[in-house]
Amino acid sequence: MGKNSSEYADGQQETGKAIHSFMDMVAGEAEQYAADHTSPMSPLLEEIEDYTLNKTESPSWLTGRIEGRFLQLIIVLSGFRNVIDIGTFTGYSALAMAESIPPDGKVLTIEHNSANADIAQGFFDRSPQGYKINLQRGEAINILKSLPPEATDLVFIDADKANYLAYYHESMRILRKGGLIVSDIIQTRNMLGSSRRCLNLIKIPTKVQLSDP
Ligand SMILES: C[S@@+](CC[C@H](N)C(=O)[O-])C[C@H]1O[C@@H](n2cnc3c(N)ncnc32)[C@H](O)[C@@H]1O
User: Fold this and answer.
1) Count of CB atoms within 10 A of residue 117's CB?
2) Does residue 61's CB lie within 6 angstroms of at least one atom of ligand 1?
3) What is the CA radius of gyration of the chain?
4) Domain boundaries, the chain
5) How many angstroms does the Cα of residue 94 sit away from the middle of ligand 1?
6) Does the domain spanning 17-207 belong to CATH 3.10.300.10?
7) pLDDT tens over the chain, length 213 residues
8) Residue 110 CA to chain centroid, in angstroms?
9) DSSP state letter for 116
10) Are 86 and 144 in contact (CB under 8 A)?
11) Which atom of ligand 1 sits closest to the CA of residue 67?
């Protein structure tokens, strides 16, 4: 959702174009319908969206309203308090999640591009929920590896696709029992294995019960 099929955070070219063309056609109408029937976000998130679409070179990276509301819904329904956002960009997903976690909750968001991090931090500083957000600058895999087990309830993976498998394994290590991994665009890009049977939403009832797809 919210991404053009041919553009990815790491600049990779996509494969499987025929499948993507069909999916884009269906997804375009479905996404428009979903957007039309999704409640607006907070004024600051709408401002981030407007800024990202009009003033950045990669507007398609934006998570946006549909995915943002989806993340918020998961957080509220699950009662999650501590979440990790891999790939801050202009701060949309991090702030969307911060707005939904309880007052003592925390969002750790990770960004290796300092210009993006500066933009995001500027928005976080203006938000009454910004105190919940810890923006860490650096390579996501290194920061994830520095975290202890059971550090988080939810990991949202939305960064360089080449590292998704590594992010997935580190996320499994640091998730609490009952936690969740949500990943942007892996289904058609074969990120977690040799088949197309990849999950965008991975429920972890207990860590030992889940085997890799
Ligand atoms: C698709 S954008 C994230 C969009 C964001 N979640 C949102 O809600 O709009 C991906 C971001 O991940 C960052 N990124 C890519 N590779 C990274 C890495 N190895 N470590 C940290 N950040 C990375 C990029 O600089 C980019 O800002």
Assistant:
1) 21
2) yes
3) 16
4) 17-207
5) 11
6) no
7) 444 433 444 444 444 444 444 455 556 777 788 888 888 999 999 999 999 999 999 998 999 898 899 999 999 999 999 999 999 999 999 999 999 999 999 999 999 999 999 999 999 999 999 999 999 999 999 999 999 999 999 999 999 988 988 999 999 999 999 899 998 865 444 444 433 333 344 444 333 334 444
8) 11
9) H
10) yes
11) 8
CA–CA distance, 63 with 41 (Å, rounded to integer): 12
Residue 85 CA to ligand 1 centre (angstroms): 9
The Å distance, Cα 36 to ligand 1 centre, comes to 26
Q: Is 56 helix (H, G, I), strand (E, B) or coil?
A: coil
What end-to-end distance do the CA atoms of the chain give, in Å?
A: 22
Whole-number Å distance, alpha carbon 86 to ligand 1 midpoint, is 7
List the residue whose alpha carbon is closest to atom 1 of ligand 1.
Answer: 61
Q: Which atom of ligand 1 is nearest to the CA of 89?
A: 27
Quick check: CB of 183 below 6 Å from ligand 1?
Answer: no
**Cα(149)–Cα(84) distance, integer angstroms:** 13
82 close to ligand 1 (CB < 6 Angstrom):
no
For ligand 1, the distance from its centroid to the CA atom of residue 125, given in whole angstroms, is 19
CA 213, 196, 176, 178 dihedral sign is negative
pTM of the model: 0.81
